[in-house]
Design a protein that fits this description.
The structure is a single chain. The chain is an alpha+beta fold. The chain has 2 domains: 1-82 and 165-195 and 358-449, Nucleotidyltransferase, domain 5; 198-354, ATPase, nucleotide binding domain (Nucleotidyltransferase, domain 5), CATH 3.30.420. The chain has helices at residues 51-69, 105-116, 164-176, 187-195, 198-203, 235-246, 250-260, 289-314, 339-347, 374-391, 398-405, 432-448, and strands at 7-12, 16-24, 30-39, 43-44, 47-48, 75-80, 86-95, 124-136, 139-142, 152-163, 180-186, 205-210, 215-221, 224-231, 273-276, 285-288, 327-330, 351-353.
């Protein structure tokens, strides 16, 4: 693969907006050419609430990434999160008209399209339809039904749903910042591809990405995504609590949290005190670190209990659903001192901090492998994998190439060999359906101009 294929991941977060430019080196590792970040002012809990400010922040991040790397950015892969994301499980089946022929892509596409016709609440749209396992006639637990005989094809699906208006707003911001949207991905999935190993996904693992405004959860088992959730609390509510509890301004609260914060109150002695300068002519404030960690502990415990409830809902306590690899914490909020110990204490599950350095080239800057860049690295990987797909595509016509290129790497699926005159059929897994959504969505944006 030539070395000039560049991709850009754009992580529009609640605290910061990150644009990351990179390419693959000859060892298939990711070389990061430039990174730009800006304070995110128009986003709250993962949802855009001020279009103008968000556009400015995106432009600022992109300009910085361009000047560092010397590359021009035109297309970006964007992540979507926010409190409006929810997921549900759904089973569906089709009865095949001719059971004497083997099951093909078309059958699976028919089945997935049927799921897409599910009636959602007003203003909601299906973002991903991810097949779990299939059942052919009465044979259960089939990973890959293509090529089998059978009359009734059934599957369990993991369906991710989001609010149309929130998704459109993100698209609007990206477009108004002068960029093209090449793909939209669910942020927990992006973070997962950056920090989890294939072994962990097989054994069963819960990825908890603690961002500024939201905490994202993605659960994998047997190599397949089983559950996703977005919890509308993140690092910002911890800062907010410190601000209220100690009567100080936000900037000071954030600094206190980063420098002295701990999630475990037993660590600090009563005598450890921090003095904070008072506002204009007022006396400085004295805050004991024990009180500080009590405030942090109370809020962090609430966030973890929320997440643990989701993990239990998924079925972690059943024999079949056990997550052997435990929990991986990532995102900016995972850098809080003693957080790992607290998570282990509350959940009783093995926990590690996830750094997105597994796929980065060896000489990458240490700053880049910080957990707060996990989502950006994951989005960048998504963009680069699109090119890899493009390189392997048999070109039939332009629209084929375009759709094929947009299939994600979520599931590696054997692509059946394509006859010259055949029409393109999307892969059964992967994200071709999100792509259809992206296509429709681009049209919508163009018409809205």
């Amino acid at each position: 693969m030539e070395n000039n294929k560049i991709a850009v991941g754009l992580d529009i977060g609640t605290t910061k907006i990150v644009a990351m430019i990179g390419r693959k080196n000859e060892y298939n590792k990711i070389e990061i050419l430039g990174i730009g970040k800006a304070k995110s002012l128009g986003v709250k809990r993962g949802v855009v609430n001020n279009i103008t400010q968000t556009i400015q922040s995106i432009q600022q991040a992109v300009d910085e990434a361009e000047s560092v790397s010397g590359q021009k950015i035109s297309e970006v892969v964007v992540g979507i999160a926010g409190q409006h994301i929810r997921s549900l499980h759904h089973s569906d089946y089709i009865t095949r008209s001719n059971p004497d022929e083997v099951i093909t892509d078309e059958d699976i596409e028919m089945l997935v399209n049927q799921v897409h016709k599910l009636v959602m609440l007003p203003g909601e749209e299906i973002i991903h339809v991810l097949p779990q396992e299939f059942k052919v006639d009465s044979q259960p637990d089939i990973k890959e039904p293509i090529g089998m005989y059978g009359g009734r094809l059934e599957a369990n699906f993991h369906v991710v749903v989001g609010q149309v208006s929130s998704i459109r707003n993100i698209g609007r911001c990206v477009k108004s910042a002068g960029l093209n949207l090449s793909d939209i991905t669910l942020e927990p999935l992006a973070s997962a591809s950056a920090v989890l190993s294939q072994e962990e996904k097989e054994a069963g693992v819960a990825l908890i990405d603690i961002g500024g405004g939201t905490t994202d959860l993605a659960i994998f088992k047997d190599g397949i995504i089983r559950h996703t959730a977005v919890i509308p609390f993140g690092g910002n509510v911890i800062t907010e609590d410190i601000k209220e509890g100690c009567s100080i301004i936000e900037k000071q609260a954030e600094l206190l949290k980063i420098k002295f914060g701990s999630a475990w109150p037993g660590e600090n002695k009563e005598t450890e005190i921090v003095s904070i300068p008072g506002l204009r002519g007022r006396e400085p404030k004295e805050i004991t670190l024990k009180n500080l960690s009590k405030i942090i502990h109370a809020r962090v415990q609430e966030i973890i209990e929320h997440v643990y409830l989701e993990i239990k809902n998924y079925g972690h306590e059943t024999q079949k659903g056990k997550l052997i690899a435990g929990i991986v914490l990532t995102g900016g909020g995972s850098q809080l001192k003693h957080l790992r110990q607290l998570v282990e204490y509350i959940t009783g599950m093995d926990t590690r901090i996830g750094y997105p350095n597994e796929h980065l080239a060896g000489d990458s800057d240490d700053v880049l492998s910080s957990p707060s860049y996990a989502t950006a690295v994951g989005l960048l990987m998504e963009g680069l994998d699109k090119y890899t797909k493009e390189d392997n595509v048999v070109v039939i016509n332009d629209s084929f190439e375009k759709e094929e290129a947009q299939n994600s790497v979520e599931e590696e699926v054997q692509q059946p060999s394509v006859e010259k005159e055949s029409v393109y059929r999307p892969k059964p897994k992967g994200k071709s359906f999100l792509e259809k959504f992206t296509e429709r969505f681009k049209e919508f944006l163009d018409n809205a101009e």
